[in-house]
Structure formats: C-alpha cells, structure tokens
Amino acid sequence: MLVFYPRFIRTFDDLPGYVSLLIHCWSGCNMRCFGCHNASELIDAKPDGRHLTAAQVLERLREGHQLFDALLLSGGEFLMNDMTEIRSFLKRVKALFAGPIIVYTNGTFPRKMQCLLDEGLIDGVHLDMKLPYHCLDPVEDAEVYRAIIGIAPSRKYRQAMLESVEAVIRHDSKVSQIRTVRYPLLSEEYFEHIRLYVNELNIRHGSTVPYYLNPYYPPQPANA
Ligand code: SF4
C-alpha cells in the first residue's frame, strides 16, 4: 500500500519557475547515502500511524491544488513501490491536477521510470547521479560506493543507474534534471566526470536536460 509522510513542503527552488509541492512517500530506500536528510524520519522510522494513505493525499491535493503549480514525488525511493499502486495513484492525481508531476529517484528502477514516462503519468524526473558510475567499478571501487551511497552495487545495479540517466536525457523533458550533491568526501574530479557524462549524453540525444551540482547541507539533529 502506498503510504505518505504527513508533512508536505512548498518549495520555490526545486523546479525553477514553479511553486512546487514536495510530497514524500514513506516507503524506505534501497540506498543509505552519506548525509541523507530523510534517513531518520523516512527510512529508519517506519510508518507509525501519522502517515497518510493515497486517498488522504488526494483529498489534500484536491483542497489545495491552486497553491502550487508542480508536484514533486520523493521518498525514500518512490519507485520502490508496487507499479499497480503507483499507476493508480498517478492516474487519480492527473485527474485533479494539470501541472507537471515529477518523480525524484536514485535511478535504480529504470523500467518503472520509463513506463511512467511512456504512459504520460509523470512529466519529468529529477535523478540523483551521486557518483560517476560510468568510471567506477562496483568491485574495485566498492569503498567509494559504500562511502557515498551506503552500498556496494552489483554490476547489474550500476547498469540500471546508468540506464536511468540515459533514459531521462533521451526523454528530454523541460522539467527533468540530473543532479549531484557536492559531497564533501569527494574531490572536484568526480563531479567533473559526471558533468561531462551528462553533457555527452545530451549531445548524443540532441537533448537539453540540465545538470545541477547542488551544495551539501549536513542533516540537522532532530531537536535542532
Ligand atoms: S537515495 Fe535519497 S532517500 Fe535514499 S538514502 Fe540516498 S539520499 Fe536518502
């Protein structure tokens, strides 16, 4: 069952030119990234009765949809959820909200992501390319992977993340982004490799998906 965190966030920065509503699905994550802001509330903590169901989220959207003009669906990892439930939810969102719907993902579910784009159930993707996966071997560079994404991926897993990056660029939505957090553990060279990779894919597909290198903000303690 789709379960959501009850706090919705209005944001002016995540999608330039739009007032966006950011909603977090409370479904956990298959990574454990350095400095993840959602770790304690959405990954370690399981839904505890404060959560909202899909029907409750739809009700809130129905009441307040004039207060934002884009909808951002995050997690944890939103695409870990069951596709039938994701589809059903997005169809109902589309029926009441005409603005762009964007999914945030770490790129590990390329097929689900592609299906949602092909079916027009989402308008774009903000994909976190956290490392230059194309340059880092899952075995030889396992330590780097563990330090940043908290796991050492298999080759198949790494391939999935690269497939997702290419799929987002090939789709070429004006509301999609590839982005990286400027993790303090990494030297500038890592970010430059990602930037060049995104640039090359944009050239290959005749696309213009922007790349953002975002500042790192350490998570604040819960009582700060
Ligand atoms: S992919 Fe996102 S939600 Fe998951 S651990 Fe990494 S930063 Fe946190």
UniProtKB/TrEMBL annotation:
Alphabetized Gene3D superfamilies for the sequence: Aldolase class I (3.20.20.70)
> InterPro entries from the xrefs?
Aldolase_TIM, Organic_radical-activating, rSAM, rSAM_sf
Can you tell which superkingdom this protein's organism belongs to?
Bacteria
Q: What keywords appear on the UniProt entry?
A: 4Fe-4S, Iron, Iron-sulfur, Metal-binding, S-adenosyl-L-methionine
Cofactor(s) named in the record: [4Fe-4S] cluster
Report the residue ranges that make up the Radical SAM core domain in this protein.
13-224
Q: Please give the PROSITE patterns that the UniProt record associates with this protein.
A: RADICAL_SAM
Q: Which residues form the signal peptide?
A: none
> Can you name this protein?
Radical SAM protein
Q: Which organism is it from?
A: Cohnella boryungensis
